[in-house]
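Q: How would the structure tokens look for this protein?
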Amino acid sequence: MNFDNDLMLFFRTIYEDSENMDECSAKVKSAVAAVADKLDIVRAELAVKMPATKLCEDGADMLMVLYDREKDVENEPFEASFPLFEGGFITVTFYSGNSNGFDNEQRNIVEIIANTVFIQFNRVIMQELVTHVIKTDIETGAATLDALINHAGMLIAQNRIEDFSIIFFNIHNFKYVNKVLNYEQGDVVLRNYTKTIYRNLSDGEMITRLGGDNFVMLVKKESLREYIDMLSFMNIRYDDGKVSKDFIFSATIGYSSTVGIRYPREVMARASIAYAAARRVGAGHVMEYSENIKQELMKIQGVLSNFMAGLMAGEFEVYYQPKVRIETKEIFGAEALVRWHRKGRLSAPAEFVPLLTNDGSIIKLDYYVLEEVCKWLRKRIDMGFEPLRISVNFSRKHLEEKNMIGNIVALIDK
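A: Here is the predicted structure in token form.
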């Protein structure tokens, strides 16, 4: 059998680059058609079966007709199955127009063709899986941050970005799920949560997982309020046949318009600032971005980012407010107060203590003040003076420490 030109056309057609499954299918069908007459192929099929996995959540069960001469034949077809990396297999089947089926020479060539068809489809499947992994958070099915940035870039290029709003949110109290269920079951709840949102998205909208319980949504501005209401109260049911439970979730939310945004990386900035402001107010709050919020947060970040450097440089000064007995006008003690002396300005506690308390850094400042008081008392004792009783303020944050008493005693002993 001599049909070199037909085989060359087959290989030249089938090996053309394909960007997706549709392109691959079209090229494979054209390639099979080029050799069908010479090999007496009357029908060719391709079946794909893949189990459900995190990479392919719904799995796959597909039958595709690659060639059909619409001729009835009764013989044993040639069938070849090839395993897939993620499980499952691709089966390529050829039917001969000859009642006796393919002869040996035809069968050898058909086997090569079947293997080539598999290689091409497998390559595109792997290509699409890799693209899916790059663009998708595997645990939840939400988009990745890179996918969001690329999508925002496309909307900016199309001058459509201002039709959307951005929502930055954190699921409130999701840790409760992992106390009631194990972590594997908790992952299912989080995936169901994301799916519920995903089903409500319309064209151009997107949900992205940043990590943990933090998400970003790009939504049409006319739908903004509906999404905020939905995120504020979501009922997610878990049922695996053994355990059945309903979870009610709210969220801490920051949101912003996209008016004036010119670069993709700017999309998240405003909403993240609004979210930070909402978080400072308390779990479950909703805040809209504004310039006032931005300026306030910049001031807060200035305090927090300079705190440790200021502590190491000795910029925090301890002052002693006397305690006096009214009857004798005698000083019998004092309260230790702290001021921050930085860049020629003395800051009162009201300007930094609440911020350090929310951040948790207040613990370091409290121990610093206690040590300074101990040094001062040690100096008075060494000079022959009676020590005074000094009150040192401690934040309630210390109650979260594992060894508060031990730390205090060790510092006093030192």
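The mean pLDDT is 88.

Residues 4-135 form a domain with the Beta-Lactamase fold (CATH 3.30.450.80).

Upvote if useful.
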